[in-house]
Amino acid sequence: MREIEECLADALAARHGPCGAHCIHELWLRPESLANIGALLEQLWQHAAESIPDWLPMTWFDFLPLLYDVSGRFQASGRGRANLYLVLLDYPERREQKYGVYVGMSHHTPAERFDQHKAGIRAAGSVLKRGLEVLTGPTLHLQRIPHAEAVDFEMRLAEVLRAEGLLVQGGH
């Protein structure tokens, strides 16, 4: 872990967003380092905002490792035009679960579809009102997959995340 922290310090000093993002991502997935992630994200944004990759979440939440674990259980059989995506939802009025997740599927990229939701274009109300950011990383391997599989995976991914205790919207 010390090696990762040193790498992050070097990345911050060099204003290198991709390297810093990889370090924070690695720390985020290690339970012993979760307490500092919010502060580390803030430092990275202060030092290298222009080069941070879009797969690094901007908001600290504790269930990112679970999203990777559950999403990783789904493997497409081939290539297609459909993309699965996750959106972090904000529930500030809830004490026990401040965040939830929306599970969606589209032929648009996750970022394009998130922008459409936020603009009110075929928008899910939960994303329009509560959507904070698209969570690109956990579903990177579920991009450009066959449509039939994407429909199935969208529903099953939502079901599994609900069974894991998350607040889940979407997944039709």
Tally of distinct domains: 2
User: Oligomer, anyone?
Assistant: single chain
The general outline is globular
Amount of helix: 40-55%
Q: Taking Cα atoms only, what radius of gyration do you get, to the nearest Å?
A: 16 Å
Structural class: alpha+beta
Number of helices: 7
Question: Beta-strand percentage?
Answer: 5-15%
Number of strands: 4
- Low-confidence sequence ranges: none
How do the strands of the widest beta sheet line up side by side? 3-1-2-4
How does this structure look, described?
With 172 residues, the protein is an alpha+beta fold. The chain has two domains: 2-51; 64-170, no CATH class. Helices cover 46% and strands 13% of the residues. It has seven helices and four strands. It has helices at residues 2-14, 17-28, 37-48, 64-72, 110-119, 125-130, 147-163, and strands at residues 83-90, 99-106, 131-134, 168-170. The protein has a four-stranded mixed β-sheet with strand order 3-1-2-4, with helices on both faces. Helix 2 (17-28) packs antiparallel against helix 3 (37-48). The protein is globular, with a radius of gyration of 16 Å. The N and C termini lie far apart (40 Å).
